[in-house]
Structures are given as structure tokens and as C-alpha cells.
Design goal:
The structure holds two protein chains of two kinds.
Chain A lengths: L12 H5 L7 H19 L2 H26 L7 H18 L4 H20 L8 H20 L1 H4 L5 E3 L4 E2 L2 E2 L3 H23 L2 H11 L1 H6 L4 H27 L1 E3 L5 H14 L4 H29 L2 H26 L3 H14 L6
Chain B lengths: L2 H33 L6 H18 L4 H22 L9 H23 L15 E3 L2 E3 L1 H22 L2 H11 L1 H6 L4 H27 L12 H8 L4 H26 L7 H12 L14
Helix pairs in contact in B: 1-5, 1-6, 1-8, 1-9, 1-10, 2-3, 2-4, 2-8, 3-8, 5-6, 5-8, 6-8, 9-10, 9-11
Classes of the chains: A mainly alpha, B mainly alpha.
């Protein structure tokens, strides 16, 4: 990442496809691991750690959506709903049957995958804008169902309280403990996605994205792989929902409305479609944006506006900046932050000898 | 009240509301027909128009006719500007880019209105009676009648425009094939801008009528979500489809709400149209009058 490749000659396809393309990358990965496993949790204040935790959850969801939108080229405006499916499934299992998190978490993911695959069925017949509308309908229908069927949503304000996750009799409650809990799943999601997209399945996804008819002609079962993309992507979404539920201690459909679907779409567009690093950048960016706006306005907004005006400005400014950024990246830099990062890296690769 | 009277009441309300949906759907269809762009910000267009009119009416104390005129002009200008700044740059890009750009636009508009003129719900009083017209079993609020009337007039006007007028025919040519239209000497970009401006007009009217029915605040933009079932049922590029789709959605949601709501505790209105839409997408995705250009894979 920060190092320069020099004197590395690849002689096999395995070497070319490896997750660490360079020998020195092992050290980079080790350094990043130390940073995230030791330095960051031990040095950072609880409040900042809670922001990091929110980013961690968003990373998992953004990776999942990127598998569907960025790699397979199918659009989904229903990921918020898939998250809520995972969240409520896990919450119900945890509360009614007393399942531990390591059981209810994959169950939530699987349920979301099943629902996602069903919503993805129209992708067999329709694509592009029709699929966008179909998934939007899926979002609204799932949202309505969870909100109105008390058997799923647990009655009072459609929310279920979830006990804190336990591991070997140890309860995970504080932000720092939660950080390690979430970090485990983030690493799993990142490594899983990186491996998925370079496998046979991932290459099939990319082939469908690039040209579906050509993909079918070279023998890819389009329907199966599209549904698989929906299922995998929704599994990630479901897990995101479960993690969010365990993080907050409550499953609430208001966290998973259509706005959430759009937030996640914004993450992968701002970060970069079809890239793992881009999903991470996007998740960081979109999670930090409202927090930055809030703290800036709270610090300096009072100088210009009255305090009541500041309260009105914060959420609206967030919406405006958010929309403007989406449009800006779409128009000016369609490959997102990931491309900017690559440009910077390429510049410094040969720096200071540009030629 | 008898069973059939209840049904007739639901039906009449559904028809009127449905025609008001058609008006908003018309804005969506116009843009899709001419530019192949899917406008996910249609509801926000309507809301913004409502905000502009209400702002002139309430904050700047302008008379109603002036406020409406300003609203119309502002939305036309907005349509032109939008095409110029945003959508022209996205021509030839994948469909998801346009969809996401309009979603981004929707976010911006949802922020701008309340930021400029406050987030509280503002009334938009039109000079018509509040008392509903009672006629046999029917029970009709005048505002809905006005809305339905305006919808019908504009639907007819745009229908004529596309069928008979020179500009309308040119616009259909652009929609059919941009390349051929260009080689026949049609200024494609100008017609794109015209389509967005026309959407602005329709949205402004929708904003005034829906705004006076519901009051103007951010939630006015939720009307836009109903556009999708309307246009999918009717066909994305068909003006008669927008009317018929609007009527179907209006009637279905009212009848469903009337009969199912007591059992599930409300909210059927926000649910039934989408089920209908999913069915339509499964069996007839191009809608009732739409062109069959679905590419199967």
C-alpha cells in the first residue's frame, strides 16, 4: 500500500491472484493489524471508539452491497429492509429461544439472504431501472410487514430489546469490548469479500456485470448467479442488521428505513463501486459526515445563527451535503474515493522521479 | 350506511385521489419518455414547488396568483438548470448512475426546503370551500375535485402535445432514438431541457394541489413514492398509462384501506399499491400501455 514494488517478478497465476501481491505487504498487513488490534483500542477515548464501532458496522453492510451493485451490477434499494430482517430474526431468536449471539447472528444473516433472494427473483426478468423499482417495493413491503405484524416486531413501538452478547460467560457491553467484537466480523467480511471476488463465483459476478448475454454464452447460469449475488449481499446486510441490534441492544425498524438503503448506496458510490477498499472508504466517509457536520455546527454555528436555527440546520445541511456529494462523485469521479486514493498512490510510487 | 354506499364512497375517493396521483406520475413519465432517465426525486420536486409557493404566500406576503406564478417559473427554471448542470453530464452512463444522481438530488431538495423556510408544516390555503360536497352516497372534498380536474386538463394537454404539436413529435423522435433524431436535425439537448422544464410545471401544479391537501412539509415528498406503482402499472412511457395507473392505484389503495385497515390497524394505503406493483413487475413489467422493450436475460 505505502511501499513500492520493486524486483517482484510473478511467475505463476497463483502469485498474480494472491491476496498479498508483494512480499513486503505481509509487513503492511501486520502493521495494520497491530494498529487496529492494539494501538487504536488502547489509545482512543470511548466516544471516538463508539464512532469507530459505527464505522465497523457500516463497513460490513457496504461490502455486502458492493458485492451486489459494484461487482454484479444489480441495483438494490432494499438493503435497509434486509438489515431489518436480519435484526428482527436474530432478536426474536435471542429473546424467545434464548439463542446465544453466535447462533442468532448467522440465523439472522441466513433469513436475510432468503428474503433477499426472493426480492431478487424479478432480476431474472427485469434489469436496471425496473429492478431498482422492484427492490424499492421490496423495501416498503418488508418495512410495512415488520411494522404491522406484532408477532415479528414484538409489539411496543415495533422494537425488541436484546440481551448483550456473551462469549464464554463473558458479557460484551462496554465500547472497547464491543470494538473487538465488531472488529472480528469486519475482518471476516473484508477477507471473505476479497476471497469471494477472486473466486469462480466472483468472476461470474463480474462477467454478468460487464455483459450479461456474453456471460450466459460462456456458460454462466445467469439466474443462479444473480440470485446468489442477492443472497450473499443480503446475508451481509442481515449480519449488519444483527450487529447493529447487538450494538444498540435493541432491534428497531426505524434504523432500517429507506434512508438507510440510500445511505449504503451512497457509501459504495462515494467510496467506489466494485472495490473492497472503496467500500471501507465510503463507510468511513458517510458515517463521519453527519458527526463532523454536527460537531462543526455545534462549535461554530452559534456564532452566526441562533441555537434554534442551528438545530434546524444540522439535519438539513447533512442531507444537502450528502446529496451534493453523491451527485459530485457520480458526475466528476465515478470511481469514487478509491480512485482518488489510487491516483495519490500512483503519484507517490515513482516520486520524486516522475519519469 | 349500506355496504354498496360505502363501496361507492371508497371508489369515488379513489378515483379523485388517483387522478391526483396521475398528475405527479405525468411528470415522471414526461422525463422518462423524452430522456430515458428515471426521476427518483419526483416527490421532492412536488415538495419543493409546494415550499416555494408557501414561502411566497406566507413569508413574503405575496398574493396567491403571484405565488403560484413564481412557483411555476421557479420550477421551470429549476428543470432547465438541473438538466444543464447534472443530467447532461450523465448521458450515456449506466442507468444506476442516473438513478443514484436523482436519489442524491432528492436528498438535497429534502434539505433545502426546510433549511430555507423552516421544517414546520405550513398550510397552503386555496380560495375554495372546505365543506365537502355531499351528493347521494358521495362525499367529495372540493380540493380533490379541483385536483382531479387540473390533472385531467393537463393530461389531455400533454396528450395533445405529444400527438399533434411539432415539438411533441420531435420529443417523441428523441425518445425513440437520440441518434436518428440528431441526424434529422433535432436539437436533442434542447428537448431534454424542455422535458425537464415540463416536469417542473407538472410538479409545481402537483405541489400546489397536494400541498393544499396535506400541508407543506418534508412529508409531502412521500407522495413521490406512490408514483412508482402508478407508472409501472400504466407503463413508464405512456400518458394514458399514467391516468389509468393512477386510477387503479387510487381505487385499490382506498378500497383496500376501507376493508382491510380495521383488521390490521391501518397503513394498508402504503402497502397495497406496492404489492400490486410487484405483481405487475412479475407478469407485465412494461405496464398496460408501455412499450415492450424489456430486455430479457
Amino acid at each position: 500500500m505505502i511501499h513500492r514494488e520493486c524486483g517482484v517478478l510473478k511467475t505463476t497465476y497463483e502469485a498474480d491472484m494472491a491476496l498479498y501481491p508483494l512480499p513486503i505487504a505481509r509487513w503492511t498487513v501486520a502493521a495494520i493489524a497491530i494498529l487496529f488490534f492494539v494501538v487504536l483500542p488502547l489509545s482512543v477515548h470511548e466516544y471516538y471508539l463508539s464512532i469507530v464501532n459505527l464505522i465497523s458496522i457500516a463497513v460490513v453492510g457496504a461490502l455486502g452491497l458492493n458485492i451486489l451493485v459494484g461487482y454484479t451490477g444489480q441495483i438494490s434499494i432494499g438493503h435497509g429492509a434486509f438489515m431489518s430482517v436480519g435484526a428482527y430474526t436474530a432478536a426474536n431468536f435471542a429473546v424467545r429461544l434464548g439463542f446465544p449471539f453466535w447462533l442468532s447472528l448467522p440465523l439472522g444473516g441466513l433469513m436475510a439472504a432468503a428474503v433477499g433472494a426472493v426480492v431478487g427473483i424479478p432480476s431474472l426478468r427485469i434489469k436496471g431501472l425496473y429492478l431498482a423499482i422492484a427492490t424499492l417495493a421490496g423495501q416498503l413491503i418488508i418495512e410495512w410487514t415488520i411494522n404491522h405484524v406484532t408477532w415479528i416486531s414484538g409489539g411496543v413501538q415495533a422494537s425488541i430489546e436484546v440481551p448483550r452478547p456473551r462469549l464464554f460467560g463473558f458479557q460484551i457491553a462496554a465500547q472497547r469490548e464491543m470494538y473487538f467484537f465488531l472488529l472480528f466480523f469486519v475482518v471476516l467480511a473484508i477477507v471473505g469479500t476479497m476471497n469471494l471476488v477472486r473466486s469462480r463465483i466472483g468472476r461470474a459476478f463480474i462477467a454478468i456485470r460487464d455483459h450479461d448475454i456474453a456471460a450466459e454464452i460462456i456458460g454462466i447460469n445467469i439466474f443462479r448467479y444473480k440470485l446468489l449475488a442477492f443472497a450473499i449481499s443480503s446475508f451481509y446486510a442481515g449480519v449488519t442488521g444483527v450487529l447493529y441490534t447487538y450494538y444498540l441492544g435493541i432491534a428497531n425498524y426505524e434504523q432500517f428505513q429507506i434512508v438507510t438503503s440510500i445511505d449504503y448506496l451512497a457509501m459504495i458510490i462515494i467510496g467506489g463501486l466494485g472495490s473492497v477498499l472503496g467500500s471501507i472508504f465510503g463507510a468511513i466517509f458517510v458515517t463521519l459526515l453527519p458527526i463532523l457536520i454536527r460537531s462543526t455546527m455545534e462549535a461554530f454555528g452559534g456564532l452566526v445563527f441562533s441555537s434554534a436555527a442551528v438545530l434546524n440546520i444540522i439535519p438539513n445541511l447533512r442531507l444537502i451535503l450528502f446529496g451534493v456529494l453523491i451527485i459530485f462523485f457520480l458526475v466528476v469521479e465515478p470511481d469514487g474515493l478509491n480512485r482518488l486514493w489510487r491516483n495519490i498512490r500512483n503519484y507517490f510510487r515513482v516520486w520524486p522521479f516522475a519519469y | 350506511m349500506g355496504d354498496w354506499q360505502f363501496f361507492v364512497l371508497l371508489l369515488s375517493n379513489g378515483v379523485l385521489i388517483g387522478l391526483m396521483y396521475s398528475l405527479i406520475a405525468l411528470g415522471f413519465v414526461l422525463v422518462y419518455k423524452a430522456t430515458d432517465a428515471l426521476n427518483f426525486a419526483q416527490g421532492e420536486f412536488v415538495m419543493t414547488a409546494g415550499f416555494v409557493v408557501v414561502a411566497f404566500l406566507g413569508v413574503y406576503r405575496a398574493p396567491l396568483w403571484l405565488s403560484i406564478a413564481v412557483g411555476l417559473l421557479a420550477m421551470i427554471a429549476f428543470g432547465f438548470g438541473l438538466e444543464r448542470v447534472m443530467l447532461r453530464k450523465l448521458i450515456g452512463r449506466p442507468i444506476i448512475a442516473v438513478v443514484m444522481a436523482t436519489i442524491g438530488l432528492a436528498a438535497v431538495l429534502r434539505g433545502v426546503g426546510p433549511l430555507a423556510w423552516g421544517a414546520d408544516t405550513k398550510p397552503l390555503p386555496l380560495p375554495i370551500a372546505d365543506a365537502p360536497i355531499v351528493w347521494g352516497p358521495l362525499f367529495i372534498p372540493p380540493i380533490q375535485l379541483l385536483g382531479a380536474g387540473v390533472s385531467l386538463i393537463f393530461l389531455a394537454a400533454f396528450g395533445w402535445f405529444f400527438l399533434k404539436s411539432r415539438k411533441g413529435i420531435a420529443m417523441r423522435a428523441v425518445a425513440d432514438s437520440q441518434q436518428v433524431a440528431m441526424s434529422m436535425g433535432i436539437n436533442v439537448e434542447r428537448y431534454f431541457a424542455l422535458a425537464w422544464a415540463m416536469t417542473g410545471v407538472v410538479s409545481a401544479l402537483g405541489g400546489i394541489i397536494w400541498g393544499s391537501l396535506l400541508g407543506v412539509d418534508v412529508f409531502l415528498s412521500l407522495v413521490g413514492l406512490k408514483v412508482f406503482p402508478v407508472v409501472i402499472l400504466g407503463g413508464l412511457d405512456s400518458i394514458p398509462g399514467a391516468i389509468l395507473g393512477g386510477l387503479i392505484v387510487g381505487v385499490v389503495e382506498n378500497v383496500a384501506a376501507g376493508y382491510i385497515d380495521p383488521y390490521v390497524g391501518g397503513g394498508t394505503k402504503d402497502f397495497a399499491p406496492y404489492v400490486l406493483m410487484i405483481l405487475a413487475l412479475m407478469f407485465r413489467p412494461y405496464g398496460i400501455f408501455g412499450k415492450k422493450i424489456i430486455e430479457r436475460v
